[in-house]
Design brief:
Length: 241
């Protein structure tokens, strides 16, 4: 796009999602819409360990595909990354995407170097980072940064999968939480950064907005948070000039 629109002004914004919920949502999407269940196979739900949930069996089938090395290798026409990124490289997807090409096709697992890369990109290139779980907070901050009127969002009850309303199986986190370790750090960074921006725009967004209960404490999803890689980041202003 930058080559096609050379010289055009631009800014980067993004919204993060709870990593484990995103992983569960991807299973729901593939199960609902993909004829071959995103290469997990139509019969994946009948395979796996006794008592294992369908969501967990889905990722077990995909891991087996990855371990066998039988993943699709060539990108289909019109995509911006090889399709095995979607079909078999399931760990830390947000880290992979935010870091860029050096992480896209890296074998499982991606590393702390890729986490640093993703955080550096967020820090240096993205003027706004919101989260899906704090959508109203995010929308208010973004509207203030872009100097646009803030209007409450219109909720779409016809979500693609409805996974956010489904109960996540009890075995899903214990079985696949290790696939979100680095993404948890990214998500914690996003929440902390949103806290700072909410304080800055508190007059417009309120001191106790929709996500205010998260403010002023460490976000448990991030574990050690991003302090381990903070020394690699060059701090910048998060506010529109």
């Amino acid at each position: 796009l930058h080559k096609l629109m050379a010289g055009a002004p631009f800014i980067y914004i993004t919204s993060l999602r709870n990593p484990l919920q995103r992983l569960f949502s991807w299973y729901s999407y593939c199960d609902m819409y993909s004829p071959n269940k995103c290469h997990a196979g139509k019969k994946f739900a009948g395979q796996g360990k006794q008592g294992e949930s369908a969501a967990s069996r889905f990722y077990s089938a995909r891991k087996k595909l990855y371990d066998q090395g039988s993943m699709p290798q060539d990108p289909p026409v019109g995509t911006f990354h090889p399709n095995h990124l979607e079909y078999t490289l399931d760990d830390n997807y947000q880290t992979r995407m935010l870091c860029g090409p050096r992480a896209h096709d890296h074998p499982i697992p991606v590393t702390n170097n890729h986490l640093v890369c993703a955080l550096e990109n967020l820090e240096k290139q993205y003027i706004f980072v919101g989260t899906l779980e704090r959508f109203e907070d995010s929308l208010c901050v973004l509207s203030q940064m872009l100097k646009l009127p803030h209007k409450p969002s219109v909720k779409n009850d016809k979500a693609a999968t409805g996974s956010a309303k489904k109960a996540m199986p009890a075995d899903f986190g214990p079985n696949w939480g290790h696939y979100t370790t680095l993404d948890n750090e990214i998500y914690s960074y996003g929440n902390d950064r949103l806290d700072v921006q909410l304080e800055h725009y508190s007059a417009a967004c309120g001191s106790e907005s929709a996500g205010g209960s998260l403010r002023g404490r460490k976000h448990s999803e991030g574990g050690a948070r991003f302090s381990q890689v903070d020394k690699h980041l060059q701090r910048r202003s998060y506010f529109a000039s």
